[in-house]
Amino acid sequence: MFGIGFGLERIGIAAARFPVLFSLIVVAVTVFAALNISKVRFDGNITAVLPEESEAYRNYFAQADRFRDFSRDVTILIQSDRLFTAQGLEDLRALQLEIAINPAVGNVVTMFSAPDPDPLTGEIGQFFPPVIETDEDARQLVDDLLEAYPQMRALAVPDKNTAAFVVAMREDADDPEAIGVDEEKYDGFESIRSDAGAAAPSDFTLHYTGLTPIGITVVSSLVSDQWRLTIIGLILGAGIGLIVFRSVLAAIICAVPPTLTAVWALGLLGYLQMPINYLTTVLPTLALILAFADGIVLYFRWQTSNGQTDDPQANLVEALRRVGPASALTSITTLLAFFSFSFASGSALKEFSVLGMIFVAIAFLAVIITMPLACHWAARVGVVRFGKVPKPAYRTLGRRFFRFVVPRPLAIAIAAIVVAAALTYVHFQVRPEYRITDYLPGASDTREAERLANELIGGRSMLSVAVPVAVEGNPADPANLDRLRQVETAIRDYFPDEAIISILRFADKVTTEAGLERLAEQVGTTPGQTRRNFLSRDEKDLLVTLRVPSSQAITDTLNQITQLRTSLDELDYGDRIVVSGFDVLMAQEFTRLINQLRTSLLIAIFLGVVIIGIATRSPLLTLAAITPNLLPILGIEFVLWLRGGTINISEVIALTIAFGIAIDNAVHVINIFNAGLRQGYSRRHALKEALLEVGPALGASTTIICVSSLVTQISALPMVPILGQLMTATLIVALVANLAILPANIICLNALVKRFGWRR
Amino acid sequence: MKTPNNRLSTLLLAAAVAAGATALPQAALADAAGFLKSIEGSWKGAGTAKLPGREGSERVSCRVTSSYAESETALQVKGDCATTQAKTPVNGKITHNGNSVSGSLINGLGSATMVKSQGQVKGNQLVVLSNFIDDQTGQLTRSRQVISKTGNGFQAAFFLYDNASKKFEPAGQLKFTAN
User: Fold this and answer.
1) Which of A326, A311, A293, A286 is nearest to A375 (CA)?
2) At what angle do helices A283-306 and A312-339 cross, to 10 degrees?
3) Is A748 helix (H, G, I), strand (E, B) or coil?
């Protein structure tokens, strides 16, 4: 029968017994991994995390295919004090024409694109003359434009000296699959930025935003983050090892498993050609943090034994037998936390789940194999000291907690239950949230551009409403225009009028039937990508687009969309109207996804506690482990609730991972407690021994993880520091909970069992 | 039906194809082959054009690539042109027989057919006269392009025949430089 580690500690014992063989294997694997690190790729696509089987996801890409991929548009904000003078407008128009002929560009829409249809003939002219003579003319033209088309306020903001260009990236009409090919879009965007920068007058300031610039910004942050986080994380971990053990050798030995974990993890990503995205970027760092934590506990035991006997090999095997099972079980609980993500929809989260589990397994193997090897070779070269070893930090931590708990276990246990119950209410009050700016570096130009777009032009993000035509072959047929009018009326109840654009906006300026026919002819023969701003590829749907700010809360967007959907459903053809767009996708899917992940978190907690029950075969210990492991999560959710009541996807993931690590504390306490019982100690004595032995190790490993997690604070991506902060807070609460509440629960439950004479 | 955009293509390509005369010495440019070869390369142009069916001139820009095929004694051109309202791909082909230029300047016009095209090199200028028939209305459009060499590129002036005044009226002008 296996112990709590399911016998996995035997891998380490084998490594200790056959160090040469295992060392050769480790060297071979490490060389192979190192050679593959250069193949690591990065993916900045934020939609990659969404479930592709959902209706919103399918609508989004179907809409992009039937009309065009609006989400890939690049919005350029141009600012200059002289922008709305005659020369400023001429320079702006020249800049538009220069950008338009870039090979990566499909079309550029600016204030100069405003059509001026003849009311009688329907012939489309241009609002602006080929030459703008005077500054007065310039001002008058812009005023007239904004009066005729209030929607143009998204492209011309005279009082803020700002204009906007919407640059549609070229799409390959013959290859719809090409939609969303990021590398090509990224290269295209860089070329556009280069051309625009070269062509713009020196007193024009250009800001770029849109999903493509955002993707590039995220990728560059992922690349710089990955190496910085890994290397500085290792240095920090080793530094803390040095402080905790007060030994250079200990710091070096403890750095071996996490270093190899990082190399193996990154090598595996390179070998599998799996790109690192904004979710998986944290996994290698996380794996090395786990390796530090487990390695420290193992080393701690070995060092303690070395202080008592001078047989390093025997001490090593003894440490593996005593700590190895707990390391195995903690890895299993963390692995289960990652496994819980596989219950969420979408291949990206399933991939995150699988990668997370693999990385946890890698961290465990690195610890259980390379720590004994490092210890073995250190002893062989004679650098290990025996007898009196430096006293580690936190050696009084367990005793202090024991003294705190023993006089008042019932009060602690009941208080924990009451607080957990109260915080469970808060758990259900926290709302899902998504903001694209949360994924952009704080100091990045793209984030500033996104902020300006939201503030000055009402946002660059587009919602699209596809309306089936009543009459095919003539988009400007009065019956089709009537449908657009009905749909726009419904939209106006929830969105501002100036945010709405469709063919109706200029068709309404034509007063004759012949004029409308001519207008339809011109729409029909406009180059494809421009035409698909209004008309679907098969000409069976008309498009109404709405501009929305990306800073809007997704709960608000979801409410707007739900209400709009209800209004549209009242129309005869309402069931054939499709509402889509990046924000619709995010509002619907991120809400669903975050809720699914929160359910996954509860599943992870359930599985974690159950696995403790299975490993210890003790219902009592299973019950005792519930509140100390719920409270860290609920406590952090309470803090999030106080901060604004919202939780985003990274925060849920951080909480789940933190839980997976936090439950390790319970496992270590229970492991030594059970060992004491097997040695014949009384329950109280076993508990004391457990806290005395495990307390310092847990204090040290929590400190190391928390300090190592400080590395996340240097990340350029705002989500990563938050992930680090949440993990740190969760682990500190978990340490206190498992050294105070868990022993209190064990004492109380034992007393309960004793009083009622139940079997344990 | 002839549309503003494919008319734009016609106009601009005619100008682009006939443009150039920058790289070769005067003697080499004096024949059609030498002239067409001299405009091989990548070009960027900007200017104004009056598009048929629309009031007034509009700002346009183009980026085209041209290559001369010895076997066909023809210059092939492809690229994009844009106004502030739309961007459209353009392509064309000019063949020559001796010093006489013929053929279609624009392929795939769709709604208009070039029924006559004749040009020759005079000094450092290329003059091309072309007639188009609208496939749907049967309306005849006559055009003339005059290409003049400038310091770092060339200038293409475009004229359309006005039946009322009985003369070619200016319809656009583009300045091309090497891209």
Assistant:
1) A311
2) 150
3) helix
Tell whether B135 is within 8 A of chain A (Cβ). no
Q: Which residue in A166, A169, A170, A525 has the most chain B C-beta atoms within 10 A of its own C-beta, making it the best mutation to test that interface?
A: A525
Whether residue A32 contacts residue A331, with contact meaning beta carbons closer than 8 Å, is answered with no
Q: Report the distance separating Cα A690 and Cα A676, nearest Å.
A: 7
Q: In chain B, which residue's Cα lies nearest the Cα of A115?
A: B85
Identify the pLDDT of residue B23: 34
**Top-ranked range on mean pLDDT: pick from A151-165, A340-354, A471-485:** A151-165
Nearest to A170 by CA among A155, A187, A157: A187
Q: B81 CA to chain A: closest CA distance, Å?
A: 6
B56 half-sphere exposure, CB direction, 13 A CA radius? 11
Q: Tell me the C-alpha distance between A649 and A660, whole Å.
A: 17
Paired tokens of A66: 């039937």
CB contact under 8 A, A126 and B84: yes
Taking the C-alpha atoms of residue A102 and residue B126, their distance in angstroms, rounded to an integer, is 28
Distance CA A254, CA A277 (A): 29
Residues A546/A81, Cβ–Cβ less than 8 Å: no
The whole-model pTM stands at: 0.78
| Residue A393 structure tokens | 């930090």
Residue A95's Cβ-side half-sphere holds a number of Cα atoms within 13 Å equal to 32
Tell me the shortest Cα–Cα distance from B28 to chain A, in angstroms. Answer: 31
Parallel/antiparallel/unpaired status of strands A74-79 and A162-169: antiparallel
CB contact under 8 A, A97 and B46: yes
Give me the mean pLDDT over the A111-139 stretch: 89
Q: Which of B5, B53, B80 sits opposite A101 (nearest CB)?
A: B80
Buried b (16+ CB within 10 A) or exposed e, B22-54: bebeeeebbebbbbbbbbbeebbbbbbbbbbbb
Question: Is B38 in the A-facing interface, judged by CB distances under 8 Å?
Answer: no
Quick check: helix, strand or coil at residue A677?
helix
Average pLDDT for residues A177-201, to the nearest whole number?
78
Phi, psi of A717 (to 5 degrees): -85, 125
Query: At A81, is the pLDDT very low, low, confident or very high (cuts 50, 70, 90)?
Result: very high
Retrieve residue A140's tokens: 């008058």
Cβ atoms A260, A26 nearer than 8 A: yes
Of B57, B82, B89, the CB nearest to A97: B82
